[in-house]
Each structure stands twice: as structure tokens, then as C-alpha cells.
């Protein structure tokens, strides 16, 4: 296997290889000459740790200056590294934003007891869905942030960077919902062929709930939102 100037492995067409050997999977180069990150090694651990540090820096930057501030140079400065080093881990700005979106979703959505088949499946799904709602203490700030994200992505002067982040977060949320529903389908509580459809409906319901919480009418509050998600869970369970 040939190596690039930084020590990363690069693909060589089979026709140009004298022999094929089984090698462990590779991840992004750590920037150390003639070293590449193999799972289970110190180089791999260091590479993953640095990648996590970059994502954490990006999350702090987005919280302080807004999502539109997530440029490669700005994130690199926040992480204390150069743009070239950052591109070892995230070759494109789109990949960086996608990683940030995934981190936002994975950091706020947990599987809880979704796999515990000794408990009522409706209650398990409802508890998981409740994670999409803001707490009463954070409701105003959370909803304002949600609306600002959509405004920057879809408003009169949309920002492509924010739209990419929004789309990545939407895909990640859909994958989490599909995982929850898939677990329940494996246990016989949800029709398997309807998992994707239910996930799409859940996202539509959650967005509608957020909008109603933001603009009213006044009677629609967090308790009404919780009841709406309970209503959905009851109709999904076969």
C-alpha cells in the first residue's frame, strides 16, 4: 500500500499492486509522518481524541457566535490548530458541519429504556420522544434557537452553511427515530414496513409542536406537547 506525503495510506489500483494483503481499516491521518491510525493503537486513540476536540470547539463557537460562524478557519482557531491540520480530520467544510450536527443530536438524544421489553412499549417510545422537547426552564431560548436555525437556512437571504447543518441534523434525528422504532419492530410492537414512515411523521409532528410552542395559540404549552407525543406513540404501537 502506497503512502501520501503526510504518511496516510492512499488507494492503489489493484492492477498496479504486486500482491494483495489484508490490512486493518484506516482513519484520517494524524499528521505524523509515516504513521497512520489503526483501531486499537495509540495513533488511533490520539486521532479520535483530536477529532472530538475539534467538534467540541465547533460547538462552543456555534453557541457563542452562531451557526453561521462555523468556517474551517474559525473552527481551527477555536481548536488551537491550523486549517491544514483540521482538514486532515474534516477534508471539507460540509463534513465538518455534518459532524457538528451529528454531535448535537447524539449529545441530546439517548436510547433510554427503548430496548427493555419488560416495560410498556408506548411508555418507552413516549419517553424517548420527550427528549425532542425543551425543558420548561430552557423553553424560550431553545425555541428561539430552533427558529433562528430555520430562518438562517430558509429565510430571504439563506446561508448555505446553515442549511447544510440543518439538513445534517434532520438526517441524524431521522436515524435516531428509525433506531428506536426499529428496536420496537424487532420486538413485535411496530410494523417493520412502517418504521421509515413513522419516523418521517414523528419529525413532522415535532417540528409542528415547536412552531406551536413558539407562536401559540396560548393554550398549547409543554404539557399539551407531551400529550401530543403520547398520542403519537399510542398510534404507532401495533
TrEMBL record:
Pfam families: TetR_C_6, TetR_N. InterPro entries: BetI_C, DNA-bd_HTH_TetR-type_CS, Homeodomain-like_sf, HTH-type_TetR-like_transc_reg, HTH_TetR, Tet_transcr_reg_TetR-rel_C_sf. Residues 48-108 form the HTH tetR-type domain. Gene3D superfamilies: Tetracycline Repressor, domain 2. Residues 71-90 bind DNA. GO terms for molecular function: DNA-binding transcription factor activity; transcription cis-regulatory region binding. The keyword Transmembrane helix does not apply. Keywords: DNA-binding, Repressor, Transcription, Transcription regulation. This is TetR/AcrR family transcriptional regulator.
Amino acid at each position: 500500500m502506497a503512502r501520501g506525503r503526510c504518511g496516510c495510506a492512499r488507494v492503489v489500483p489493484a492492477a498496479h499492486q504486486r500482491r494483495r494483503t489484508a490490512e486493518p481499516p484506516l482513519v484520517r491521518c494524524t499528521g505524523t509522518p509515516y504513521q497512520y491510525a489503526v483501531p486499537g493503537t495509540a495513533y488511533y486513540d490520539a486521532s479520535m481524541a483530536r477529532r472530538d476536540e475539534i467538534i467540541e470547539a465547533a460547538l462552543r463557537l456555534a453557541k457563542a457566535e452562531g451557526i453561521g460562524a462555523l468556517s474551517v478557519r474559525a473552527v481551527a482557531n477555536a481548536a488551537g490548530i491550523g486549517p491544514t491540520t483540521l482538514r486532515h480530520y474534516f477534508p471539507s467544510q460540509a463534513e465538518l458541519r455534518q459532524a457538528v450536527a451529528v454531535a448535537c443530536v447524539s449529545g441530546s438524544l439517548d436510547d433510554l429504556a427503548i430496548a427493555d421489553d419488560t416495560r410498556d412499549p408506548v411508555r418507552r417510545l413516549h419517553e424517548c420522544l420527550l427528549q425532542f422537547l425543551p425543558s420548561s426552564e430552557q423553553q424560550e431560548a431553545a425555541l428561539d434557537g430552533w427558529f433562528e436555525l430555520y430562518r438562517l437556512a430558509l429565510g430571504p437571504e439563506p446561508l448555505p452553511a446553515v442549511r447544510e447543518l440543518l439538513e445534517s441534523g434532520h438526517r441524524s434525528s431521522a436515524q435516531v427515530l428509525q433506531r428506536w422504532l426499529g428496536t420496537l419492530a424487532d420486538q413485535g410492537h411496530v410494523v417493520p414496513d412502517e418504521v421509515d414512515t413513522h419516523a418521517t411523521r414523528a419529525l413532522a409532528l415535532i417540528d409542528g409542536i415547536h412552531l406551536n410552542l413558539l407562536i401559540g395559540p396560548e393554550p398549547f404549552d409543554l404539557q399539551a406537547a407531551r400529550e401530543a407525543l403520547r398520542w403519537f406513540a399510542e398510534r404507532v404501537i401495533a
